[in-house]
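New here. Your pick:
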Amino acid sequence: MSDQGKMSPARRRGLSDEVADRIREAIFDGAYAPGAQLREVELSAVLGVSRGPVREALRLLEREGLVHCAWHRGTTVTTLSPEDVAELDSLRGALEDLAVRQVITRAADDDLASLAKAAEVMERVTDAHEMVRLDIAFHDAVFAAADHQRLADAWDGLRCQVHLFLLTRINLSVEGYLGCIPREHRELVSALRSRDTETALRLFAAHRRHAVDVLTGHPTCSKRIPDGD
């Protein structure tokens, strides 16, 4: 028998993906905070679907790191441990450092102009959850401008957890958040446009550190990002 004859029939997909999108957006909107329980029966009723697509959607979200499934507790929105925070920060930093170097050496002026526009949109935002979305969108644009497909794929596998990380940050404190983030991103764009690798890497690292500091109990949002001396 040929290899093709051994394969299982293809299944039509779509509904479970749509359900996953809806649940994911609800998490990102703050409707379900970290630790909140996600009950299949309630979700199926709210979304108007059977429990099967909900179950499949939750499995997808678990693979993304957004939810945690346990037989004795059911499914809950992931609560990040200190180890999770450290691992996310270190991996994001490694990916982002490469992206910054790629952008500075390879990005076209149009790519940098797009980054500037993404940063400008933040100036008009008054909602913390929307600011988190724009923060993620800005970094999406950085990875896109890096013109490195495998790097972009690696970021895509991490971005939902980074989004959750930032939601955890604003759930702890929004003090100064809406004022800090636009300014920080203006500085990031300026460094990229100047093609200044050392300054850009330092500013991106400081930008990441501010969120980690809030999660670890040392909130900062300096008026000026310190020099690297």
Remarks:
- DSSP finds ten helices and three strands in the chain.
- Confidence is low (pLDDT under 50) at residues 222-229.
- The first strand starts at residue 37 and ends at 38.
- Strands lie at 37-38, 67-70, 74-77.
